[in-house]
Amino acid sequence: MLSLVLAEILAITGARLVPADPQAELRVVTVLIDGERITEVGENLAIPEDARKIDGQGLFLCAAPIDGFAYWDQGHDLLYASAGISLLTDHGNNVLAILAAKASNERGGLPALRIAGPVIDGFPPSTNEASVARTPLEAETQITPMLEEGIDFVAFQSNLAKDPWRKLIEVAHKHERQVWGPLPHGVSLAEALEAGQDGFLFLDVLLQPGQAWSNVQAADLDAPIAALIKARARMVPFLNGNARLLGERSMKAPELELLSPQFANYWRGELTSLQTAIADPEKKKLFLTTGARVLELQRGLLLRLHDGGVPLIPGSGAPHPWLFPGEGLHDELALWQAAGLAPREVLRMATLGAAQALGIDKDRGSIEAGKLADLVLLRDDPTKDIAALRKPEWVVLRGSANSRATLDTALAALRERQMKAQAQASIQIEVGSPPKVEGELVLAGYCQTSALGVRTAAERYTAVRSADGKLSFCGLRVVPQAEGAPVQIESLMRVAEGKLEYFLIKLKTPKHELSVEGFLTATANQTRVERKADGVHIDLQTSPEPISVVDVGSVTTMLVIEATKDSGTFPVMTFHEGLEMEVVRWELSMGADGAHYLRTPEGPKIAVFDERGGIRGIREQIGSGTDETLGTNTLAKERPGLPFSASKLKEIERARVRLEEAKKNAPPATEPPKSGGEK
Fold first, then answer.
1. CA separation for the pair 442, 438 (Å, rounded)
2. pLDDT at residue number 671
3. How far apart are CA 266 and CA 320, in angstroms?
């Protein structure tokens, strides 16, 4: 990734040190670094003969800033490093990926990670990586293993209910970990402070129920501000959460070329939605006027909180749309300076202040002997303008030093890779044939799944009826990877008399194969499951009840439901990383047009079929994201397929009748709709 100037001893000479104390004077120093840590800082130090030297003459030396609120993605590591960010505070992620990234020995020259593991949320969850806790027991069960794995703090989202939220705080504090999040729904700021929530995300915590930034007055916020000052509660204010929407953006913005296809499309999609919403000149004028007024109000609140002694931590919110990894933190710092904070105070808050608030100042936040060597060398003076931080001449992260030239070369290579990936994202995914079984082919099709306009998977499926009348649903799903060969998922589910009697799932990578095989026991009241890795037995498990269908992301799951299930709830076997088994319940209801509406723990799903039972489309809401699957029925037209059963057709007719009755009873179009209040 980067060409590292990494030596046992590194000496930085002749630079003007900007101390963490805003009252201290700048001075020219030498800094000696041994491995990851600073060994000496002084004006007349003896430099070992074998030391590698960086000439800092004419440059300013300061601690590298900390991003207190972001979401890590491997593809963004270089962007943070190039911007001189020393540490990324990740507020929720895929647990295996983030734990592996933090433990990696290959992060030399890249920002360190401070992680929460998965974000904890209620139902429905806010993201597809969230861990759902509906009860205090579930909250404790979810978070305890993560604390033992070594997460640095606990993060939650606002859908978490009050009782599991309290349990989360109790368990985290027993393990001496901070708990961070917004205000949960139904919890007041006073309750949160009393319960001991350690940190708050966003100035929104100041608003009372029913208040909005567009109509609140500064005086309305006196009481919550006083409460935060009294408690000295930590906060990530995140001014750029609103300010980002006020700038001029372009679909051809150069920063998009440095993002993966998913993020580039995500950003463009939000810009399209915003431009559509304010296409009318008057609407745009009102939007910008209101946004500017809200930003001015929030700047004033930032100053009041700072003057009151509330520990404020800068955070970028990246990579949400137009919050660029690395640069997003500098944009936030610029807003703090524009609000009236002195540049040197903003620098302190982004370094030592952030480290102290997060409880990591023993190792980070200032240039002192014994601390980690996280520092930047700047062309301009950051005490005059915080913008000096934006493009460091040198970035040293835990002793690994990279020059501006090295970083720019790496960025150019990244841009080339991402532009190539964006171009390839529109190419059709090649898929082979699904598993073959003996019998009559009664259904066949091809499906393609997209997220944020990027093709993420494709699948071919078949349904085969054997001589004894049993139906086998077979699928081959191909999931491209950012690097390397795609992952393939083979699925086979066999149904007899409307029940799932057998299944075999294989997850294949170029080097390994995980498989899970299950069958209905003779007593027909349990499903027994065996897992294997590369053909070697791992374990044998038994579900507490017969399983109706297996879900591994294959469209064959929807085909089995279409062929076997009427409205109601039923047990579904799902799998997590490593094909870890879990049994959950889905609920099916029918639409007047034959659409299958499913409520699942991960979020709602809608499946639409053609007249012969083939997949026409599937829409899955997973947290805040949406997957769209479009299907083509490739079955020969002379074959009947698998049309809806008689019982399902009756359900559809009942749904149609209910819809017609609802239309008859609806108020006239001229009558204003009744509403419980403004959204």
1. 12
2. 39
3. 9
* Coil vs helix vs strand at 356: helix
Nearest of 479, 487, 477 to residue 432 by alpha carbon: 477
User: Sorting pLDDT into bands at 50, 70 and 90, what band is 670?
Assistant: very low
Specify the DSSP class assigned to residue 254: G
HSE-CB for 387 with a 13 A CA cutoff: 3
The verdict on whether omega for the bond into residue 319 sits within 30 degrees of 0, i.e. cis, is yes
Beta-bridge partners for 541:
529
pLDDT band at 581 (very low <50, low <70, confident <90, very high): confident
d(C-alpha 614, C-alpha 607), whole Å = 10
Of 142, 164, 160, 48, nearest in space to 95 by CA? 142
| Partners of 609 in beta bridges | 615
- Cα gap 349→345, rounded to integer Å: 6
- d(C-alpha 263, C-alpha 453), whole Å: 10
Query: Average pLDDT of 145-169?
Result: 93
The token pair that represents 369 in the structure block: 């002997």
DSSP-derived secondary structure letter, 82: H
Give dist(CA 613, CA 591) in Å, integer.
15
Distances in Å between the alpha carbon of 587 and those of 387, 571, 572?
53, 9, 10
At 345, list the tokens: 């105070």
- Quick one: which H or E segment has residue 617? strand 615-622
Give Cα separations from 149 to 98, 103, 310, 578 (angstroms): 11, 11, 31, 17
Q: HEC states along 242-311?
A: HHCCCCCCCCCCHHHHHCCHHHHHHHHHHHHHHHHHCCCHHHHHHHHHHHHHHHHHHHHHHHHHHHCCCC
Residue type, 651: E
**Phi and psi of 426, rounded to 5°?**
-95, -5
Please, what sign has the CA dihedral across residues 82, 85, 86, 91? negative
Distance (Å, whole) CA 373 – CA 64: 9
Tens digit of each residue's pLDDT (9 = 90 or more) over 39-81: 999 998 999 988 999 999 999 999 999 999 999 998 899 999 9
C-alpha 269/C-alpha 272 separation (Å) is 5
**C-alpha to C-alpha distance for 371 and 399, rounded to whole angstroms:** 11
Please count the other Cβ atoms lying within 10 Å of the Cβ belonging to residue 580: 11
pLDDT classification of 422: cutoffs 50, 70, 90? confident
